[in-house]
Amino acid sequence: MSSAMTQSGAVVARMTAIADEVAGPAAADVDEQGRFPSEAIEALRAEGLLAALVPTASGGGGATLAEVSEGLVALGRRCASSAMVVAMHHIQVACLVRHGATPALRDFLGELSEQQYLLASATTEVGTGGDVRSSICALEVADGRFRLEKQAPVISYADAADAVLVTARRSADSPESDQVIVLCRPPGLELEQVGEWNALGFRGTCSTGFVLRATGDAELVLTEPYGDVSTRTMLPVAHLLWSSVWLGIASDAVELARRSVQAEGRRKPGTTPASSVRMAETVVLHQQFIDMVRASLARFEEADTDVERLSSIGFGIGMNALKVSSSTLVVDIVRECMLVCGLASYRLDSPYSLGRHLRDAMGAALMVNNDRIMANNAQMLLVHRGE
Amino acid sequence: MTVDGTVDGTIRQVLADHARLAVPVDSLTEETDLFGAGMTSHASVNVMLALEDAFDFEFSETMLKKSTFESIGAIRVAVAEMTEA
Questions:
Q1: Domain B7-84, CATH number (from 1.10.1200.10, 3.40.50.150, 1.10.645.10, 1.10.260.40)
Q2: How many CB atoms are closer than 10 A to CB A264?
Q3: Other Cβ atoms within 10 Å of B42 Cβ, number
Q4: What are phi and psi of A119, to 5 degrees?
Q5: pLDDT tens digit string along A175-194?
Q6: Chain A contacts of B41, Cβ < 8 Å?
Q7: In this predicted complex, what is the ipTM?
Q8: How far is A168 from A161, CA to CA, in rounded Å?
Q9: A275: which of A73, A114, A334, A340 fits an S-S bond (Cβ 3.0–4.6 Å)?
Q10: Which of A176, A177, A231, A372 to mutate to test the interface with B (most CBs of B within 10 A)?
Q11: What chain B residue is nearest to A380 in terms of C-alpha separation?
């Protein structure tokens, strides 16, 4: 791992270059084929960027979450599917960095950095209706080894992943909310695909279902309950990094809209283009989005490893609100940009095409459904006293 | 307050009514991890509300965290602190 990685700005610069030079050119094909964005992932791998969030002491890049966020905005501008895959990977890495305390898990982090492993996640389960804080499947642990079988409706890019972090009930006797999370990897990992991923957007995330069967060292089970891992890391980091990807989508749309208005302005200097006021209104939304992501990252960074702060109801409400805001803003901004660009954005084959942006943006509110998130916030608001 | 009028009785009644545990409330000790016994975050909010209603106080902001509600013993300490105030 090059020490250049830890220089401020290096991660962002390298991710931006890969976005522009690799992910962008392949994006249309990734979308059309609904295929895994292998070029972008390989490019990140070649530069050691899959270990960006791993501390340098474990062989990683030692980058901050803010740097990875900015890199994801750049990737999101060019290929939202690539950006989503990379975001989902970093969310799992963050969980291992912050909660992977056993020797086996610490070793794995070192291996991940060296080998540039791609991590996937299996938190949803057939039968739990999208509630990730509840599991049906349970770990069987005997003689220092675990065994697990899970019907997962979605494991994004599982076939391309080197390992999967999977949630399950702690034991066969445990209630459904008593969950752990375990690292599953070959040779003790078998994935039987169920169905295809043929969706409106994020087509390159390959979010198919699988029957997952795994065995492994019991030390690969994270010691902290999944509820704590989720509250303190997985949920906030997921919402922060997804919001970064979606900000990228919005930012590219805004850039196209700006070019469109400026092109019109050049054609008829002295006249105010019809779309210029709408452009100004769109930038109001874009500014909200930019500042919101930045402030939310700062809030998470301030909380650091302060368990009290991370677990407080107010913090949880805020991180949920972030996701609802960003998933709403991305659609609003793309829609406004389509009005600015006009029919050219509606075409699939113009320099101002926004079709893929819109299709990808629509997925944001659905990956964990905003209605579910709002119901959770509504419940917490019954006892929240305010900041 | 419950029929027996004790703080402990009230706490256990609230848990029986709202915590949605996988085990009978009678089987819980002072230290039993309620979250481990099946109380979800959602249910813990209902427990908080029911305790506030039963004891006629409002938990302060600093009390509204997971550790306050993780066992009967922890809840009793919190209730004592709120009713002394």
A1: 1.10.1200.10
A2: 17
A3: 15
A4: -105, 140
A5: 999 999 999 999 999 999 99
A6: 133, 227, 380
A7: 0.85
A8: 19
A9: A340
A10: A177
A11: B45
